[in-house]
Structures are given as C-alpha cells and as structure tokens.
Specification:
The chain is of the alpha+beta class and 362 residues long. The protein has 3 domains: 68 residues, no CATH class; 143 residues, no CATH class; 111 residues, Orthogonal Bundle (Arc Repressor Mutant, subunit A), CATH 1.10.10. The chain has 16 helices and 7 strands. The chain has a 5-stranded mixed beta sheet.
C-alpha cells in the first residue's frame, strides 16, 4: 500500500463523510476545526480542491468516527460498528495460518459483534465455494433494512465489500483480483465509480453484496504480524477505503513522485511534466481532465499541502517557510496561501496553536 505521506484522496470522499455527520445534527464547524481542515469540503466543487492529503483525510475520518461513535461513520445508520471493532477483528485473525482460515474467523467474529449489539442478520456473512476454483464472500443480509436499496446504501455496501477485499489482500501481501461483484438494488448512474472500485464485471439486483475470486487465494499464508497491524491501524481508513486513488497508475500520484519534496526549484512546466511522464501535453491534459482537475490545480494543491506541512513545524519561521516553498518575496507566499485556504499563513498557524492550547486545557 502507498505511503500515507505521499498519497492523495479525492475531496468528494471527505465531503460524503461530513454530510453524514451533518445529517445527524453534529456541529460541522467544530469537527472541521479539530480536524485542522483548511477548507469546508461541502463548498462548491468548483471552489474546493479536487484532492486532499491522505493524512488530512485520516484526521477527518478519526474525528467523525469518534463523534458518531461508529467505525462505519454512519454509512450504515441502523447498524453501528462500536469503536475498536476493526482492531479486535484484526487481532482475532492476524495469527491464522492462511487467508481461508482468517476470512472464516473474521466472519464468525463479525456475527458475534452484531449479536452483542442486538442486531442479528437474517443471513450471516459467509464464505463458500461455487466450484473447486471459485470462492465467494457474502456480506450479511438484514431483511428489515430498506436503506440497502437506496443509492447511498448500495454505495456503502460496495465500499465495505471493497475494504474487506483490500484487507484480505494486505493479510497475504498480494492484491486479490476479483472475478465478479454482485450488489443489491438497481444499477446506479455513477457506474464508473463502481468500476474503478472493483475493476471487474459488476451486476445489480442481488439479495446480498458479494464478490467472487479464485479459490487459490484462500491457501495463501498470512504474511502480516501484530507490528505491521499497528501501522495499518494508524493509517486506516486511508489504506482500506481509498487505495485505488493512490495507486501507481494514478496520474496525480505519478506527478507527485516527480515533484518530490523540493520546492525551492521552479515547478516543471506542463510540457516538462508531460516529458517526465513519457506522454504528449494533450494526453496529459486529457488524463487530468478525466480526473476532473487541471495542471494548475495540481500545482496549487501540491504547494498548499507542502506549506501546511511546514506550518505545523513551530521551529520554522513563516519567512523561512516562504523560502522553502521557493518564493523570493514572503508577501507573494502570503497571497498564494490565502488564495489556497482563505487564511494567511500566520492566521493558520494561530489556529493550530489555539487548538493545541485547547487540548492541553482539556
């Protein structure tokens, strides 16, 4: 999985989380402040950045998860996952010999947790074979939950299915290629989003969310341990919910690798970047357009994230940060930062200090 320090996440993921908390009556301004979000993701899509750093996304997730007391952050309103559920499930299966044993034990523990909170499924999560070569994993089925057939409910089920698949792949140190995904409800309009999530044939109208895969994965040995699990838990949900976004094939991630962390040099022109990527300028612009962004937006977001990283280091003076960002004049850096975040560097750092003081007083 990609490093959280270099990965980026579509802002729409953060927007969805915030809207869930808002719908349940929580103070969004306070959540954004505590999460150190430099902007409100609910704003006009044209005025908000297309991507945010995985680190920022994780902070927002952790805050909303804590606020809702639900590790699914309200994706399944009628069924909450108590805080610590994922950690306990992981510890239950990390010492299994192979993936098949781990998936079965994970299913058993999931059913046990649901029984503890008084929500027993009409059909339990299960793993079975349709043939010697093909295995199927099904999510639980709850007959009385009509939300599952709504657009949001179908998408929530898809993300949970995708996260479980990625977690299983992490356990064995290998990506699990899916053969087919079946989801309940009618086919939604945003099929490309589902296709990007699974990269395999997808059908709708099923009784329960499920995916099929080659059964040879079930014999794969577990290669992770409790130490590597600690790292995964620190990076969740980024590592499980948005891995495709930060894959090596993503054009934004590839450009970020060429930029690196050195900002005192001039930013590559679009022609230079196209050359680094071994493609024409028109192809680069077409790829960026497919990601709903432009080269200028990419430059602004990259600079903004780097500036925020520096501002969190109190030993660095703002003028020094301006120099590290490659600005000859601090005033130009101030104007640029305010354009990116709607506050000046000094105001942003004051907000950070105020939040730290509130934590100490609490």
């Amino acid at each position: 999985m990609s490093s959280i320090s270099s990965a980026i996440i579509p802002t729409k993921f953060a927007r969805s989380m915030v809207k869930v908390a808002e719908a349940q009556g929580h103070d969004i301004s306070h959540i954004l402040e505590i999460s150190e979000m430099p902007f409100d993701p609910r704003g006009n899509e044209e005025d908000t950045p297309e991507y945010i750093s995985a680190d920022l996304y994780n902070r927002l997730y952790q805050r909303i998860m804590w606020t809702l007391q639900d590790e699914t952050f309200g994706m399944l309103p009628q069924i909450k996952a108590p805080l610590g559920s994922f950690r306990m499930t992981s510890l239950m299966i990390i010492h299994c010999d192979n993936l098949g044993e781990a998936m079965i034990r994970g299913n058993e523990f999931s059913d046990f947790q649901q029984a503890l909170i008084g929500f027993t499924p009409t059909k339990k999560r299960r793993l079975y074979n349709t043939s010697p070569d093909i295995a199927v994993l099904e999510l639980p089925h709850y007959q009385d939950l009509q939300y599952a057939l709504t657009t949001d409910g179908i998408l929530a089920g898809a993300h949970i299915l995708s996260a479980w698949r990625r977690f299983c792949g992490w356990l064995i140190g290998n990506t699990i290629e899916l053969l087919e995904v079946r989801l309940p409800g009618n086919e939604p309009e945003n099929m490309p989003r589902y296709q990007k999530l699974f990269n395999c044939p997808i059908s709708f109208g099923a009784d329960v969310a499920q995916f099929s895969f080659s059964s040879h994965y079930l014999k794969s040995r577990i290669v992770q341990n409790e130490d590597s699990l600690k790292t995964l838990l620190r990076n969740a949900p980024y590592a499980l919910l948005a891995e495709e976004v930060s894959s090596t094939n993503n054009i934004i991630t590839r450009m970020r690798k060429h930029i690196g962390s050195e900002f005192t040099k001039d930013f590559p022109s679009v022609e230079e970047m196209a050359g680094l990527l071994n493609m024409s300028v028109s192809t680069l612009r077409r790829r960026l357009n497919k990601e709903n962004t432009t080269y200028q937006k990419f430059k602004d977001i990259t600079r903004r994230d780097a500036a925020i990283h520096y501002l969190k280091q109190p030993e660095l003076k703002i003028n020094a940060i301006s120099a590290l960002m490659g600005y000859d004049e601090p005033s130009v850096f101030h104007r640029s930062f305010k354009k990116w975040t709607n506050v000046t560097p000094g105001e942003y750092r004051n907000q950070l200090n105020q939040q730290e003081n509130e934590k100490v007083e609490a």
